[in-house]
Amino acid sequence: MRFALQSFKNAGQMIGKVSSYFETEPLGFSDQPWFYNMAIELGTRLEPHALLSLCQDIETAGGRVRTFPNAPRTLDLDILLYEDIVLQGETLIIPHPRLSARRFVLEPLVQIAPDRMHPVLNKTIRALLEECPDKSEIRILP
Fold first, then answer.
1. Domain coverage including residue 112
2. How far is CA 69 from CA 53, 72, 73, in A?
3. Is 116 part of the annotated catalytic residue set?
4. 73 an active-site residue?
5. Set 57, 66, 78, 98: catalytic member
6. Of residues 2, 31, 57, 64, which has the active-site annotation?
7. For residue range 24-80, what is the model confidence (pLDDT) as tens digits?
8. What is the CATH number of the domain that holds 49?
9. Which residue among the candidates 2, 31, 57, 73 is catalytic per the annotation?
10. Residue 139 designated active-site
11. Dihedral sign, CA of 74, 87, 49, 114?
12. What are the φ/ψ torsions at residue 16 (nearest 5 degrees)?
C-alpha cells in the first residue's frame, strides 16, 4: 500500500486524505489470506480512463498478476468515486458498482469521506455503511 501511495506521488498525483489500514476477511474465494485495505483521496488532473490506466500500471509495477476473479493479488486499486461523475463504460464504471455492498470498501472510505454523497444512490458513505449487508470481519491495523 505504501508502494501504491508513493507511485501515485511519483506520477504527479496529489494524495489527500488517507484512511487507516484495515485487515479484512476475503470475500468470494475464501481460501486465501486476509486482505489489507485502505482508501485514499487523490487529487488528479487525469480523466477517469487515464486514471484507470495509471492504476493498472501501478498494480503491474507492484507485482500484480491477473489470474481469476477474487484471486489473491499483491495490489488492487479501484476508482470508487470520481467527483460526481456517473460513468457506465465497458472498462470502467463509476461509482464502483459494488461500493455499497462491501464493508471492506466502506469502512476505510467512511474515515475519509463520511458525508460524501453517492451520486447514484443519493446517500452518504456513512449511511451506506450503516445499511451495508456485508457483515464480514474487519480489523483496523495499528
1. 2-140
2. 19, 9, 10
3. no
4. yes
5. 78
6. 64
7. 988 776 777 888 999 999 999 999 999 999 999 999 999 877 776 666 678 999 999
8. 3.30.70.560
9. 73
10. no
11. negative
12. -95, -125
